[in-house]
Every structure is written in C-alpha cells, then in structure tokens.
Amino acid sequence: MNFELNNFELTRRLKAVLFDMDGVLFDSMPNHAYAWSHAMTDFGLKMEPEEVYMNEGRTGKGTINILSNHYWGRDATDEEVEQIYEAKSALFNSLPETQPMPGAMDLLEKIRAQGLMRVIVTGSATHALLDRVNAAFPDIFSPELMVTAFDVRHGKPNPEPYLMGLKKAGIQASEAIVVENAPLGIQAARAAGIFTIAVNTGPLPDSVLREAGANLVMPSMQYLADHWGEPSFTFNI
Ligand code: MG
C-alpha cells in the first residue's frame, strides 16, 4: 500500500469514512475501563484503567489472557474467561448509558453531505447495536455497512475487520479513511492499508497513537468535525 499518497490524491479518490465505535462515536471508554479494572480485581487480576485503553479493540478472551498469563503464568480456562467476561459485562451494564461522543454527529453530517459512505467497524459483540446507533445518529448508518465481532474471525489489531469494512463498501483501501482512537485499532487500519486519523479521546499520550501508525492525530472528535473541510486543515478534504 502506498502511504506516500498525498492528501490531494486521497481527497479526490475518497469514497468512504470507516468509523470505530467505542471512544469515537460513543464516549464509552471510561465505563469500559471502570468495568474491566473492577471485574479483574474481583478475580485477583490487577488491570489499571490505562491498560484497558492500551488493549482496547482486543477480544474479551484476548484481554483476559494477557492478564492471566502475567499473574497466573497461563491462559485462563474457558470457564474463567466466561466468568470474568460476564462480571465485566454486568458491571458495564450497571453504569449509566454511554452518550454519543461530542462532535460525532457534526462530523457525520458533514460526511453525509459530501456524499461519502459511512461505515462502522467495531470489535463489539453487542446485539441490537444497529438500534443503538440509529437512535444516537439517525439516518447516518445502514446495516449492510457495519462490521461487528460477529462478521470476523480475528479482532483488531488484525486487519480483518477493516478489510471486511472495505469489502462491504465495495471499495479499495486507497478510497477510504479510518477514524480510530485505540492503538490496536490504528494498527489494524494501517495493516489494512488505510489512511488513519486518530482522535485522542482518552488518557494515552499522542505519541502512543502516532507510534501505532496514525497518519494524523486530532485532539477530539469535535476538533475533527470543526476543521473537516477547511482549506487550512492538515488533511484538506
Ligand atoms: Mg475505539
């Protein structure tokens, strides 16, 4: 994949923007960080909130096994994975419902007005995801342009979710942009050959997002929305 592609060429070819969900469209990461760190503690595994952000995008099993290998020296059994994941999900569901990320709808409306496709690529395995997305962002997304954990064999940082997003949209990597917040998500998008804008909506330093391969790092979704389309913007749409 040619990453020397300049912004003008990418702008000319652009057909779709692929969005990650948690930490990009929804301000859900603080709740995920709280639920993961507390559920792990209950099972004798210590997970700092920052580690949740570093591992965002991994499957539940993958996340649990990183901790179990560190503290127990082995993979968690299927039963342990199930128990910990259930505890995490129960804690998460007990928290106040997460809200749309400020600026997300502004950006989505601009992109829709440009006639570009909007695609969701998430590692989430939430049923009724479409209902939730449609309630928060009416008339923006369609079910055939969504990739969830149910569509792929390998989660981020594997490129499969983003490659599936391109396939569903019927486009090439050079015709898309990804908007991501997580290091592993950025790695996945770049491994799929897609120009990637990171929005730093969490506690990690910008350098972590750059080192993961982000082509640009923006301070927030609102900032990206406000500057999308401006001639002076670094990425000149
Ligand atoms: Mg995310």
Written overview of the protein:
By secondary structure, the protein is of the alpha/beta class. It is globular, with a radius of gyration of 18 Å. The longest helix has 17 residues, at 78-94. The chain has helices at 7-13, 29-42, 49-55, 60-72, 78-94, 104-113, 129-136, 160-169, 183-191, 206-211, 221-227, and strands spanning 16-19, 117-121, 146-147, 176-180, 195-199, 216-218. The protein has a 6-stranded parallel sheet with strand order 3-2-1-4-5-6. Strand 5, helix 10 (206-211) and strand 6 (216-218) form a beta-alpha-beta unit. The protein has 2 domains: 2-27 and 99-236, HAD superfamily/HAD-like (Rossmann fold, 3-Layer(aba) Sandwich), CATH 3.40.50; 29-94, Putative phosphatase, domain 2 (DNA polymerase, domain 1). Bound molecules: magnesium ion (MG). Magnesium ion is lined by residues 20, 22-24, 56, 181-182, 185.
How is the secondary structure organized here?
Elements lengths: L6 H7 L2 E4 L9 H14 L6 H7 L4 H13 L5 H17 L9 H10 L3 E5 L7 H8 L9 E2 L12 H10 L6 E5 L2 H9 L3 E5 L6 H6 L4 E3 L2 H7 L10
Parallel strand pairs: 1-2, 1-4, 2-3, 4-5, 5-6
Helix pairs in contact: 2-3, 2-5, 4-5, 6-11
This protein binds magnesium ion.
